[in-house]
Structures are given as structure tokens and as C-alpha cells.
Recover the amino acids of this structure.
């Protein structure tokens, strides 16, 4: 219970803090809408390394605020999007990118789901093929011997 | 029967994979700076605020750069290890005090003037070292965390090992434990100092 209360409390603190930041962002947005739009877009591509499952646009951690400020300065200095992203990657590595680049070490990450789906399809196809051949093999016409036995059984059970 | 072994095997493999994944430390993000030159900076020295220090002045030496702050809780855990290290080992240990005042979160920075922040930061850092012991050869003050960004700092404490040519050879994120010191840092220092 105590834990739950702490959680609720923490939630309120963070949500009010987020509101405070929003008003600051709004003020800056009004001052220079184009730059702020770019900042917003870039921030959504960059991971906050403190709260690792958030972008620096979502996160309100100190570091995220600092990095947003850094991006804002670079936009003002006329840096291109690529230059800004490169700035982050040279300092924090590919991990800072919310969408990791496709390269040797991330092949499994990008290709894994596709590979698993192909494997699944392969297994399904093999299973279906085997099932068909098995059913076909079982679905033979009765041999003469079997036919006479079936007839005898049917005769036995026919009501007189 | 055979088929059940197959499923059991696949399940065991999945469990093993997840077990490995869960035991990895998500905070341990490999730094792209390892093998690269230590980013340049020129920051005020804590003991002598009128002087500055940067990696250029450390050229030709193997040295450690340790990021700390008085508000950082894990730094307290690490500190005795550093104090012990500084007594035993003759390798320069430079402290990088990271956002001493604004990192604390207890101050409203919009209401604080720059010189006021600077004064408070120096006071707080000096007090902390006086209270807990000072293992640092020198400490430099990164008030706004700008140098921290260049070094890819995202959690204090962090420690960098820098070689004679000024290249970063290792980065450790989180507090240095006696194990990390003995098994990773000391052997590397010995090798670099050869």
C-alpha cells in the first residue's frame, strides 16, 4: 500500500513537472516555430540515456533537458539534422538513436523478426505437406480382403 | 516422444536467452569514445579557481578522470575506494565535478546568477572533499555540464582511463568497486605505464 502511494505520488510529481516544461516549450515555440518544430522532431529520434525507454522529447531528466538545450543551440547555429545527430552519436554511441542504424551488429535486431517469420512459415509449410501425404497415404481404397471383412461386419449388424 | 524433447529444448533455449538478457546491465552502454582522443576542455581548478586545466596539460601521462558531484549518492559508495587508490597508486586522478549546483535539483536555477552559482558550487565541492577526504590530484569544475556532454556522461559517477597519447582507453559507468579497480583498472594502468 505504501509503495502504491509512493508510486501515485511520483506520478503526480512527474506529471506536474511535465506540465511546467510544456509551458516553457510553448513559449519557445511561439518565439521561433520553425526551430522548435525541428527540435521536437530531432528530440523524438534521440534516446535519453538516463531513462532509457524515453526519447529526449518525452523525458524530463536533467540530461534530456541539457541535450534539448544543446540541440536548440546547434539549430540556432545553423547545423543540419545530420550534423546534430552525428554530434550525439560521437558522444553517446548508436544507443542514443531511437531507431538504431542497420549495420553488422544490428542485423539480428532488424532481421530477427523477419527470420523468425520465415522460419515459422517454413515449419508450417512442412507440417501441412507432411499432413497431406499422410492423409493421402491413409485414404486408400479398401483391399479385397478388407472389403469382404467390412461386408461381413455390416451384415452381422443389419437388423433382421 | 521425440517431438516433446524438441519443444522442451526450444523452451530451455528461450529461458537461457532471457536469463542472459536479464543479467546484462542496461546502464552499461559501450562508449564510442574508447580509443578516441579525450575531448578537450579548459575548466577552472577547484583548489585554485584562477587557473584552468585540460587534457592538454596531462599529455604524456596515464591518468584517470573521475566524474563526481556532492549530490551524487553512488559517489559516496565509490569514494573510499578512490581515497584508498590515491594513497597507494601514483597515477594522477583528476576529478571532474559535474553540475555541482544545477545537478542537485534543490535550486531554482532561473533565480540564480552565474557568479552566485559558481561561488556556491566551489563551496559545496570543497566542503564535500573536506568531509569525505580528497583523493584527487586536482578537481575541475564543470558547472553547466557542457564538458560532461562531450564525454558522454549520463550518470555520475563515471571514470575514464586516458593514456599518454591522450586517448581514452576505458570508460567505467557507475561506482568503482574494489573488484572493478583490481580486475580492470589496475591491470590496464600497469599495461599503459609500461
Amino acid at each position: 500500500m505504501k509503495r502504491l502511494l509512493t508510486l501515485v505520488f511520483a506520478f503526480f510529481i512527474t506529471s506536474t513537472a511535465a506540465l511546467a516544461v510544456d509551458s516553457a516549450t510553448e513559449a519557445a515555440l511561439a518565439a521561433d516555430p520553425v526551430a522548435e518544430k525541428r527540435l521536437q522532431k530531432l528530440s523524438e529520434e534521440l534516446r535519453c540515456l538516463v531513462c532509457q525507454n524515453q526519447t529526449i522529447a518525452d523525458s524530463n531528466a536533467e540530461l534530456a533537458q541539457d541535450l534539448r538545450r544543446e540541440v536548440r543551440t546547434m539549430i540556432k547555429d545553423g547545423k543540419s539534422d545530420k550534423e546534430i545527430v552525428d554530434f550525439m552519436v560521437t558522444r553517446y554511441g548508436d544507443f542514443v538513436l531511437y531507431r538504431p542504424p542497420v549495420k553488422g551488429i544490428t542485423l539480428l535486431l532488424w532481421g530477427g523478426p523477419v527470420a523468425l517469420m520465415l522460419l515459422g512459415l517454413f515449419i508450417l509449410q512442412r507440417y501441412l505437406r507432411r499432413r497431406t501425404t499422410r492423409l493421402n497415404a491413409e485414404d486408400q481404397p479398401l483391399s479385397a480382403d478388407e472389403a469382404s471383412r467390412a461386408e461381413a461386419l455390416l451384415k452381422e449388424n443389419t437388423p433382421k | 516422444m521425440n517431438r516433446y524433447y524438441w519443444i522442451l529444448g526450444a523452451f530451455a533455449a528461450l529461458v537461457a536467452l532471457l536469463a542472459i538478457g536479464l543479467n546484462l546491465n542496461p546502464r552499461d552502454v559501450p562508449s564510442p569514445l574508447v580509443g578516441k582522443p579525450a575531448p578537450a576542455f579548459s575548466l577552472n581548478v577547484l583548489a585554485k579557481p584562477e587557473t584552468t586545466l585540460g587534457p592538454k596539460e596531462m599529455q604524456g601521462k596515464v591518468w584517470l578522470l573521475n566524474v563526481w558531484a556532492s549530490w551524487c549518492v553512488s559517489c559516496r559508495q565509490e569514494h573510499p575506494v578512490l581515497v584508498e587508490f590515491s594513497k597507494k597508486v601514483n597515477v594522477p586522478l583528476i576529478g571532474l565535478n559535474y553540475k555541482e549546483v544545477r545537478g542537485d535539483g534543490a535550486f531554482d536555477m532561473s533565480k540564480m546568477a552565474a557568479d552566485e552559482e559558481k561561488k556556491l558550487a566551489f563551496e559545496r565541492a570543497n566542503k564535500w572533499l573536506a568531509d569525505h577526504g580528497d583523493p584527487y590530484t586536482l578537481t575541475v569544475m564543470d558547472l553547466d555540464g557542457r564538458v560532461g556532454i562531450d564525454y558522454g556522461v549520463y550518470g555520475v559517477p563515471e571514470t575514464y582511463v586516458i593514456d599518454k597519447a591522450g586517448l581514452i582507453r576505458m570508460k567505467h559507468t557507475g561506482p568503482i568497486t574494489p573488484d572493478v579497480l583490481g580486475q580492470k583498472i589496475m591491470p590496464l594502468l600497469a599495461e599503459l605505464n609500461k
